[in-house]
């Protein structure tokens, strides 16, 4: 099911666009000419007339040399209609937004007694319930270089590098749920272990973050390029559902850059 938060985001974006149109058109109308445009067909040619307010119904003939006046009058009529349509739609959007104010189907469980909800199979879990269940899933870590898990983050998770600990701190700060080194089956014969599996709550899709920590080591680079190709062959592409952070001896870990990348991707405010 499409998340109501996604719908609200689209409604808000649409409202911002409509508000901008209304404001722009109102400013432009201040410079619009008086009167309105009438068109008529004579001998297969279109003729234009300017009707004055309170004047005759036929209007004053607009010569071809004054065609710009006809364009401005036509634009004026269009702009007035655009403003009316936009204002009407804004009211509808506001009404739709109010429908989701605590009344989305995901919120039903919050209004019921917990003992009753324990017996229910909900139509849709709330974000909080979904995240809690996602974080509680059990999986076995790949058993390679387990002795390298020597760094511990604030949640007590053992990690392989100080940089990964810093990344986990950034994820916690931005409120992005993550699992460390959760195995991912890319194909029948290929299973990888992403450094971080992230949960994008906008779509409830998993996103993968790989930290390339030794880019000055060519064997390491070749190994990870093969890993990235395996992601791509499985339809997981860099910038889409695969994010990359990196460092090398001459290019140390840049926490600000990683935070900016994650903030941009997940639309978080820094």
Brief overview:
The protein has 270 residues and is α+β, with helices and mostly antiparallel strands. It has helices at 4-29, 67-99, 114-117, 127-135, 162-174, 218-233, 255-266; strands at residues 36-42, 45-51, 60-61, 151-152, 158-159, 178-180, 184-185, 191-192, 196-200, 205-212, 242-246.
How do the strands and helices of this protein lay out in sequence?
Layout: H1 4-29, E1 36-42, E2 45-51, E3 60-61, H2 67-99, H3 114-117, H4 127-135, E4 151-152, E5 158-159, H5 162-174, E6 178-180, E7 184-185, E8 191-192, E9 196-200, E10 205-212, H6 218-233, E11 242-246, H7 255-266
Parallel strand pairs: 10-11
Antiparallel strand pairs: 1-2, 2-3, 4-5, 6-9, 7-8, 9-10
The residue fraction in helices comes out at: 40-55%
Radius of gyration: 30 Å
Largest sheet at a glance? 4 strands, mixed
- Which fold name is given in CATH as the topology of the largest domain? Trna Endonuclease, Chain: A, domain 1
Strand percentage: 15-25%
Roughly what is the average pLDDT, rounded to an integer?
A: 90
Instruction: Give the terminus-to-terminus CA distance.
Output: 29 Å
- How does the overall form come out from the CA principal axes? elongated
The number of distinct structural domains comes to: 2
Pairing-aware structural class of the strands and helices?
alpha+beta
Which CATH class of the largest domain? Answer: Alpha Beta
Question: How is this structure best described in words?
Answer:
The chain is built from seven helices and eleven strands. The protein is an alpha+beta fold and 270 residues long. Helices cover 42% and strands 17% of the residues. α1 (4-29) runs antiparallel to α2 and α5 (162-174) runs parallel beside α7 (255-266). The longest helix has 33 residues, at 67-99. A hairpin with a 4-residue loop joins β9 and β10 (205-212). A four-stranded mixed sheet has the order 6-9-10-11, with helices on both faces. The mean pLDDT is 90. The chain starts with a helix and ends with a helix. It has helices spanning 4-29, 67-99, 114-117, 127-135, 162-174, 218-233, 255-266, and strands spanning 36-42, 45-51, 60-61, 151-152, 158-159, 178-180, 184-185, 191-192, 196-200, 205-212, 242-246. It has two domains: 4-105; 127-266, Trna Endonuclease, Chain: A, domain 1, CATH 3.40.1350. 12% of the residues are buried.
